[in-house]
Amino acid sequence: MIPAILSRPFSEKTGLIPGTKKGADMEILVLVKHVPASDAAIKVAGDGRTIETAGLSFVLNPYDEYAVEEALKTKEAKGGSVTVLTVGGPETVKTLRHCLALGADKAIRIGVEGGELDGLATSNILADKIKELNPELVFCGKQAIDNDDSQIGPRIAARLGWACLSDASTFVLGDAAWSGERDIEGGKESVEGSLPAVITCDKGLNEPRYANMKGIMMAKKKPLEEVEASPMASKVEMVKLAPPPPRPEPTILGEGPDAIPALIEKLKNEVKVL
Fold this sequence. Notes:
The protein is of the alpha/beta class and 274 residues long. It has helices at 62-78, 93-102, 119-133, 152-160, 213-219, 260-269, and strands at residues 2-3, 27-31, 34-36, 58-60, 81-87, 106-112, 137-141, 163-173, 177-184, 187-194, 197-201, 224-229.
């Protein structure tokens, strides 16, 4: 076992970490993001720095589906409540309602005035809210598919001084401690740590559930809080966003054995692989 950072000592009398809630009082938080669908046709906006959102389909970040499912499984096994949290504009309410339909108990949207937020600013805003809510467990996807920077979970854990398991492929929660695994090149890494903790979720951790009609109807009545956070300056600025260059048209060199000399010539002089 490779130990994770222990954020608070165990109590020898109770077997719990001081200040840790248990059972029906356990608070579980899930960080989610509203992202363009993976099959959406992305176009760069006129400013050359953002994407064109008009007519674009947005969904719950696919990796966050595993985070929501793990939070719900944990609640079903240990009790407590699940709150989903996001940073974004009013358009993100759709994604929060979807999480409520899946089984989350409450949702919170944090609005921020100003421009785009980088990973540092976003994680600081989330960490401040997490500190206020004081959960025992925070789940999130290992990355968001729109920027793939994988920063949020580890940054939050570092800011709060909590244990962190990134890219979790398995997760087991005890009364006051947890263990888990993540896939690495050539094998698996096993870790264990204490609560509170941030767990970033990889594919294969579980099988995300679908929302049923009952859940969709109940989601309309569940609490969804909308708050504003003070703007935070980003340390990284998006300078330019560009689509990948178009692929060159294929060159037809001929057919059959007669094309081999021309192919060899191109591989030697143009592709430089011979």
